[in-house]
TrEMBL record:
UniProt key word Hydrolase: yes
Keyword Zinc: no
Species of origin: Cystobacter ferrugineus
Start and end residues of each stretch annotated as Disordered: 157-178
Protein name: dCTP deaminase
Length: 178
């Protein structure tokens, strides 16, 4: 089941959901708006390799904003650090950002229970669009779980700022040895 906005606020106050910084004005009927941080990463190469770390360039989003191009994947991040050991956060785009052709996350909207940190956003623009630091760019919902809980201990734990893919770590490199 999804938590309502008032229940999200109650759980933040009790400490079972952590949102920092928390702003009551960002609570919605069944979600919490998150804001865009001021850093983006873009991959240096056009063709990415899933078996190795792909180099990135870091961009700062100035107060006057930055224009996103349709042919580029931008890795952004939330201003807020979010997590819970009791509820599962799920990222959602806001309808207002979707209506200007901005995908806030291409995939991976489910955040594992026990994961804490800033969310990395996978931004893709359908047409050129200007974004700004601190803008409300998406929302997070919180879901209850059934069954035993195993807390996330993965490679993206404690993320601060945008994190490039570490899919290469998932390969068993021994399978490719002679």
């Amino acid at each position: 089941m999804i938590l309502t906005g008032p229940k999200i606020q109650q759980e933040v106050l009790s400490g079972t959901i952590r949102i920092s910084p928390f702003c009551e004005e960002q609570v919605n009927p069944n979600s919490y708006d998150f804001r865009l941080g001021d850093t983006l990463k873009v991959y240096k190469k056009h063709v990415l390799d899933t078996k190795k770390l792909n180099e990135t360039t870091t961009l700062h989003i100035p107060p006057e904003g930055i224009e996103l191009r349709p042919d580029t994947l931008y890795l952004g991040h939330t201003m807020e650090s979010v997590g819970s050991d009791k509820f599962v956060p799920v990222l959602r785009g806001k309808s207002s950002t979707g209506r200007i052709g901005l995908f806030v996350h291409i995939t991976a909207d489910l955040i594992d229970i026990g994961s804490y940190g800033q969310f990395t956003l996978m931004l893709h623009a359908v047409q050129p669009v200007r974004i700004y630091p601190r803008m409300r760019i998406g929302q997070v919902t919180f879901w209850t779980v059934l069954g035993d809980i195993t807390l996330y201990q993965g490679k993206y734990q404690g993320s601060n700022g945008p994190r490039e893919s570490e899919v290469y770590r998932d390969f068993d490199h021994r399978e490719h040895l002679p």
